[in-house]
Amino acid sequence: MTSPHEGGGDEGSATEPEPPACARCGVRADGPPPTWTLSVENGVRLHYCERCSRENLRAIEGRLDSRWW
Predict the structure, then answer these.
(1) Which residues pair with residue 67 across a beta bridge?
(2) pTM
(3) From CA 35, how far away is CA 30, in angstroms rounded?
(4) What are the pLDDT digits (tens) for 44-62?
(5) Euclidean distance between CA atoms 4 and 24, whole angstroms
């Protein structure tokens, strides 16, 4: 039996994650976006910029998936 950690791989690579992009309009954040909204839809993490979040606040508060906005 082998463990998932055997056989090498890219463990511990120093690649930095890409800055998040808004799932609605595509704008990219310069750094960690503290004013953005994070939504988990069907197990997928989606980020929404401040503008898109404000424009769709009622749908977000109603917990509607973004496809209903």
Answers:
(1) none
(2) 0.64
(3) 12
(4) 999 999 999 999 888 877 8
(5) 35
